[in-house]
Amino acid sequence: MAATDRDRYKTFLRQLQIQRGQLAGLPGWCIRITLVIVLLVLFNTGVGAAVLPEDRADAMHHAYEGGGISIDGPSILLRKSIGESLSFSANYYVDNITGASIDVVATASAYEEQRTEHTVGVDYLNNKTLMSLSVTNSSENDFEAQSFHVGVTQDFFGDLTTLSLGYSKGEDEVGKTGDEFFSETATRHNYSLGLTQVATKNLILGFNVENISDQGYLNNPYRSVRFLDVNADKGFRFETERYPTTRTSNAVSMTANYYLPYRASIYAEGRRFSDSWGISANTYKLGYVHTFGDSWLLDVRVRQYQQNKADFYQDLFARSGEFNFMARDKELSTFSNRSIGLSVSYSHRFNASGFFKKASANLEVDHLQFDYDDFRDVTADAEVGMEPLYALSATVSRLYMSIWY
Amino acid sequence: MKTQAITNPKAYSSCLKSTLLIMTMVLLGGCESIEPWVKPYERNNLADPVMSLNRNPVASTYMHHVYQAREGARGAEGGAGGGCGCN
Lengths: 405, 87
Known about the structure:
The structure holds 2 protein chains of 2 kinds. Chain A is mostly beta strands. Helix content of chain A is 9%, strand content 59%. Chain A has a single domain (31-404), classed as monomeric porin ompg (Porin). Chain A is built from 3 helices and 18 strands. A 16-stranded antiparallel barrel of chain A has the order 1-2-3-4-5-6-7-8-9-12-13-14-15-16-17-18. Chain A has a two-stranded antiparallel ribbon with strand order 10-11. The longest helix of chain A is centred in the first third of the chain and has 16 residues, at 28-43. Chain A starts with a helix and ends with a strand. Chain B has 3 helices and no strands. The model of chain B is unreliable at 1-7 and 80-87 (pLDDT under 50). Chains A and B meet through helix 2, strand 1, strand 6, strand 7 and strand 8 of A and helix 1 and helix 3 of B.
């Protein structure tokens, strides 16, 4: 076997391995193979009754306030079908970011930047199978991301079961403000499977699995790790963090939605996550939807999230370059968060003979509380390694109008 | 780091079982003889907007983004691809 063939063979074997990140005993390659087989079988069985998404337009203003930063901006979504088998969609989304998070305060100055995202998509209904294709571009002054998504949805068992399969690929170009020679890339692959099951005339169950693999530059180029240095004023210094160049993750979730006899519902969701970096996480969500007459809808919810840190995360390293991989991103630390949310929606149904069918006005607010177990507030005046643990709270709101036509 | 190769018999076995289970479900979907245990005329409650996990896609997509940017976990956010065949 030639050297290049041997290298390719080894690369192939490595791709078939999984370093961790297994879920329910299923490795990542298994999930991918299963998805491909099911996809092939699906296209050879002309059963089901998928439908095109509804024609609608949404205009939203979103705002995030917390941890020293503010992010807000618009999101516009338009969807229109042409004939019986095609539906087109377009989404324009902007994040205006101002302020300085704890990471920035510790190592740099406050900043302002804007992220703009465009998505266009088409859904095609053929032989009662719904196929979806969309492309997305996300642009910042120091980051460009392109991705595409393909998906297929089909109903089975007299429309009681809905199966959705999806694949996405993304390409990132990472730059760094102030360093014109800094240029890195990353590639992402997402494989997803969703199953929705009508269990009774009042209960819908859902099951979702998603495998994501990344390769390339996965750091945030502005984030740093800190290490002990007795010669430094505060007893520590910072240096650029170093991540592995590959990551594979698996997530599985279950949902349940139950109709209550007075036109209300309760819903619950649980998700288990693990990845090849050693992170494992659990998410739980519980909500209640209540209606007042035909027009008003109220949604209250609570959400709980907990994760364990990545293998290469530490709040404080013993020395510079202590390990091959070193990170101090608080998103990779051990932490938990809780959120409580409220949505109010008012809808109005128009005369059936007119162009517009329905309109709604919506306000959603969530309050989030993050508590970090091994990420310390280095801006506090304390002995190195004894600083108080960091915590933040944030308020997230969405105000939007929707119209169906 | 711990690694598990494709040659692991347990991994093969669990993969085979899950593939067979899903394929059986998919293939059975083509059988006309299966009677839906919830009839179309019994799906009024399921079709009500209060039962939709993805009532407002523009808002739910945004919230997924908010959490994904601040948490290590990603993927399998519920609500996508749902429905009860009663649109």
